[in-house]
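During the reporting period the student researcher (J.K.) took over the structure-prediction task from the postdoctoral fellow and processed the backlog of single-chain submissions. One of the processed entries is reproduced below for the supervisory committee.
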Amino acid sequence: MEISLKEILTEKALKVRRKIIRMLAKAGSGHPGGSLSMVEILVTLYFADILRYREEDPFWPERDRVVLSKGHGVPALYAVWSEIGWIPEHMLWTLRKINSPLQGHPDRRKLPILEISSGSLGQGLSVGIGMALAGKMDKKDYRVYVIMGDGEMDEGQVWEGAMFANFHRLNNLTVIVDYNKFQLDGAIEEILDFSPLDEKWRSFGWEVFEVDGHSFDELKDVFEKVKNNNFEKPQCIIAHTVKGKGVSFMENNNAFHGKAPTKEQAIEALKELGEENPEI
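J.K. obtained the following structure tokens:
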């Protein structure tokens, strides 16, 4: 029986979540909530024929660029890249160890296939804008995707970048907001409520879409729209997600923003994710 793309993506997401949990438990530190919330976003980009890249050459000059501005969620990216073959699986278990290429926030000096070092929130969009502008100037047709957190919208630099990108008509630039409704200190609405987020991006001149960030169908559809339609301005995809998605006791539980699961919690999580006799 032929396996559908949705089934393939679902299985990939499951594997990625298991790897995230195991990585963080072995490291004893990290950010499970924001890593788990963007799994479907990354899996769709890399495995649903959206991104232009070459498995055999991650440095291919014509590749689409993925800028992970919310750098604390990088375990999800590492896990996806291990599924591609860019990172050997055994290396995942060195997360956050001294001298490991896999630092807790992206460090391009240690792992050159990363597009940028990131983690200081608010800066990733500016770097992505530079890449998109360079692509225009060099007459390249690659796209730049910037993945941002919702708490990151508090940063003024984001809105300076939003103005610049629209002014220069960077239609090769797509922002994806992982809108899980939480940031470090609590719920977005209780710290600095920026709703309605869609209207804010539209007022800055961007093409805006809202999707369920855990629906492969909706994500694939919107990514194909921004990839195949020649919009005259940059695009913002607001992906509504659940922090800690996939693990019941982590979902919408901000205690797991920056706290790794214990060994016992990790085993419980892995059982929820379909492993019968998990070991850490």
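The committee noted the following: The mean pLDDT is 97.
J.K. will present the remaining backlog at the next meeting.
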